[in-house]
């Protein structure tokens, strides 16, 4: 389905998904139960999980993360050890992955990525799952800024959790994939392009705390809003109006609009039968990155829909291989 035609399908699907009058319906974008794709086999190594750690408080609203990491030898018998009780210099440096959940930017929770987080941690990474502010109460770019805040928190707490800030990746699905692709395509952008995507000032110290991102996995990613029907209101709850009313916001919120040679390489995963987000919406960014010389990759899951692609073991295996390779993790 060409994107010029598929854009209408995307807008209608999103309208049905999140509900123009009741965005809470967006729960349908997420698995109805916890992702268990990475929990079908026994853990390869003991893990430590720090749950509900506050990483930011924008406008007084606390945002929390869960940190999954391989247990150090002295922790292998513990379920979890509070970070304040750990000795930072005793924790080995490991690559980290930030995981961002889906839900139409209007719902969802960090627990829906727990299966992936455990798989990444069992492979030797520090996996951080986050919550972020939801539309329509909080419109774009609040969600992008929350992901940035989580990255800054990782940079600021790298010693505590044994994170190598030279080896940081990201994983997102659906709306979460859109957000991580925004970070990846803006990583080398000039301030004039970044400014419409943030409420942070240019001299905010958090910018310097954000580590360089080395690799991204984006599944079912909506990457192009500039071709949506000009008066369609399907994602107005997220962007604040229609494309006719806010053309520059629609451009700013489109990862494909920011594609350049300095983009972070992405593994795109998309079901060919996805009726929520058409496959063409991620391919347009993938092809733009290839044209710029970015070494992104694409995995099309034949016949898979939006949710089944997320739960497909092939998605997890491809994500693991891509991240371990790009983050320099030894098998």
Descriptive labels:
12 helices, alpha/beta, 331 residues, Rossmann fold, single chain
Question: Would you kindly provide a brief summary of this structure?
Answer:
With 331 residues, this protein is α/β, with parallel strands linked by helices. 32% of the residues lie in helices and 18% in strands.
Strand order of the largest sheet: 1-2-4-3-5-6-7-8
**Under the CATH scheme, which architecture would be assigned?**
3-Layer(aba) Sandwich
Span of the ends, CA to CA: 39 Å
**Count of distinct structural domains:** 1
Determine the number of helices (DSSP H or I, runs of at least 4 residues).
Answer: 12
Low-confidence stretches: 1-34, 36-43, 77-82
- Let me know the CATH homologous superfamily: Alpha/Beta hydrolase fold, catalytic domain
Tell me the overall shape: globular
CATH class: Alpha Beta
Which bin fits the share of residues in helices?
Answer: 25-40%
Reading the helices and strands in chain order gives: HEEEHEHHEHHHEHHEHEHH
What is the beta-strand fraction? 15-25%
What does this structure look like?
The protein has helices spanning 3-18, 114-122, 142-156, 158-161, 175-185, 191-194, 206-209, 236-239, 247-252, 280-291, 306-311, 313-326; strands spanning 47-56, 63-70, 94-100, 126-130, 163-173, 213-219, 266-271, 297-301. It is an alpha/beta fold and 331 residues long. The protein has one domain (3-37, 53-64, 91-113, 124-326): Alpha/Beta hydrolase fold, catalytic domain (Rossmann fold, 3-Layer(aba) Sandwich). The protein has an 8-stranded mixed sheet with strand order 1-2-4-3-5-6-7-8, with helices on both faces. The longest helix has 16 residues, at 3-18. The protein is globular. The N and C termini lie far apart (39 Å). The model is unreliable at 1-34, 36-43 and 77-82 (pLDDT under 50).
């Amino acid at each position: 389905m060409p994107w010029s035609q598929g854009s209408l399908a995307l807008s209608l699907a999103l309208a049905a998904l999140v509900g123009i009058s009741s965005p809470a319906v967006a729960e349908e974008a997420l698995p109805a139960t916890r992702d268990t794709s990475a929990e079908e086999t026994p853990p390869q190594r003991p893990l430590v999980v720090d749950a509900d750690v506050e990483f930011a408080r924008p406008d007084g609203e606390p945002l929390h993360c869960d940190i999954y990491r391989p247990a150090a030898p002295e922790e292998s018998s513990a379920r979890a050890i509070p970070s304040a009780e750990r000795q930072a210099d005793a924790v080995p440096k490991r690559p980290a992955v930030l995981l961002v959940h889906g839900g139409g930017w209007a719902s969802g929770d960090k627990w829906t990525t727990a299966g992936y987080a455990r798989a990444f941690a069992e492979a030797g990474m520090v996996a951080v799952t986050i919550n972020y502010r939801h539309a329509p109460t909080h419109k774009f770019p609040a969600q992008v800024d929350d992901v940035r805040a989580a990255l800054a928190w990782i940079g600021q707490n790298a010693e505590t959790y044994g994170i190598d800030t030279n080896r940081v990746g990201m994983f997102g699905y659906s709306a979460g994939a859109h957000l991580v692709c925004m970070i990846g395509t803006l990583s080398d952008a000039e301030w004039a392009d970044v400014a419409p995507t943030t409420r942070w000032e240019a001299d905010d110290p958090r910018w310097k705390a954000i580590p360089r991102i080395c690799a991204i996995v984006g599944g079912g990613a909506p990457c192009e809003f500039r071709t949506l029907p000009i008066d369609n209101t399907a994602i107005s709850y997220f962007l604040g109006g229609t494309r006719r009313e806010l053309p520059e916001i629609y451009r700013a919120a489109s990862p494909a609009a920011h594609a350049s040679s300095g983009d972070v390489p992405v593994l795109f995963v998309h079901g060919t039968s996805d009726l929520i987000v058409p496959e063409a919406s991620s391919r347009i960014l993938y092809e733009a990155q290839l044209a710029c010389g970015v070494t992104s990759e694409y995995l099309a899951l034949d016949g898979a829909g939006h949710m089944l692609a997320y739960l497909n073991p092939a998605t997890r295996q491809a994500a693991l291989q891509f991240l371990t390779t790009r983050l320099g993790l030894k098998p």
